[in-house]
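Morning. Coffee machine broken again, so started the prediction first thing and wrote up yesterday's gels while waiting. Chain of 507 residues, entered below exactly as on the submission form.
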Amino acid sequence: MEKLRLRFAPSPTGALHIGGVRTALYNYLLAKKHGGTFILRIEDTDQARFVPGAEDYIKEALEWFGLVPDEGPGYGGDHGPYRQSERKELYQKYTTQLVEAGRAYYAFDTPEELAAQREQDPNFKYDASVRMRLKNSLTLPQEEVAHALAEGKDYVIRLKVPENETVSVQDKVRGQVSFDSNELDDKVLLKADGMPTYHMANVVDDYLMEITHVIRGEEWLSSTAHHVLLYRALGWESRMPEFAHLPLILRPDGKGKLSKRDGARFGFPVFPLSWNGQTEEDSFTGFREYGFLPEAAINFLALLGWNPGTEQEVFSLEELVDTFSVERINKSGTRFDIDKAKWFNQQYIIKADAGYLLEKVRPIIKAHGYEPGDAFLRGFIELMRERAITLGDFWENGYFFFEEPREYDEKMIQKRWAPERKGLFDELAGQLHSLNGYTAENIKAQAEAFINEKGLKFGDVLPILRLGVAGTMKGPAIFEMMELLGKEEVDRRLRKAFVQFNELSNP
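Came back before lunch.
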């Protein structure tokens, strides 16, 4: 079996949509499963839509997910350059070759003339039915064509689509797909600015980069007929890659394709990393900044259109490589279920190595002005990891490990606190503060002894300790919390809280 070579070929026109990451992932998985090569190619021929910083964003996103290209701009490789804007001469060479072979032609129609055609016929398309009455090298005398070219007159080069042919392609997801050539237009291959269109550049690059498999979104399926015709016209049909067109990622309600605007609409990320556009409308929160671990996001994306054929749901990237097969990609669209994505993230947080989480959580805590030592942070992570769905939850649900409670749960205080018991709880606080070994085990033993001695119940005491330390009934085990915070901090909080509880219970 020849060595597989697959590419991910995004356009640097803005933030990379999460659907693009899924495309990159499937290409990466198939390449790695067979010991092949994963290539990044930047398709930047549309200079009008080029956005500065987009290429760096694409690379950073891929690297964050662990999908590091083997070849590409900045990664090296023997098939470069890997930016299409740096391959202009190659496309011009092959389009000229097509014209000389009679498989393409010069078209001199101005934009105004084509607009007039469309005004006369809203269904107008430049194809075999109209090409012989338009202004091109098939209808104009050779001398006139030569003169127009010598004068530098604007032109495009169009593919001459043959008539009355069935163009078929065996798609690895959808089976055989056929197109009637009479329904295909004569696609522009080279634009007036000398840059190629997607179709020409795509085919030339895939051939010269020796791409064996093309996995891309289903929106490109309709273009595949033109690509097949180009491979034939250039004499490269024997080296045409195998195609696999991926199903759409649908909105959570299943109504239509997930768009970049849907993130704001539904309140979840649809980009891998945050993107700061020129306007607020073009700025988006990413999976990374939302608090996802890259491993969880990759696991979620892998199953968004692919079925492993087993009950297993949680996969490492290495397991995905071993298990992946194109044949198990779904044909129909898959709904984007953010709750499922969060479930994956929670599983990874629960199982993650403490040292790994330390590096993920530390910047979040530091952003709120706190820089605890490693020992405290590790203890905090162990207590909070089962209560965190996203990384941000470590702070949101556990801020009271770093600062005293912002507020107290008044309903619970009025239910559990009696002002006449303040002296009793002051006594308990004093006993806990006097402990020699301030461990969860010792704190628990002292609290139990106090409860038994005073004829109280656990429900009389433990909620008060929890409210005093954290302000809320939510959170990890109270005695473990107290051990981590330390006796001085706990004592200070309890003494202050008991005073406030008296005030809150007598509004």
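The domain at 87-246 is CATH 3.90.800.10 (Glutamyl-tRNA Synthetase; domain 3). Going to sketch it on the whiteboard this afternoon.
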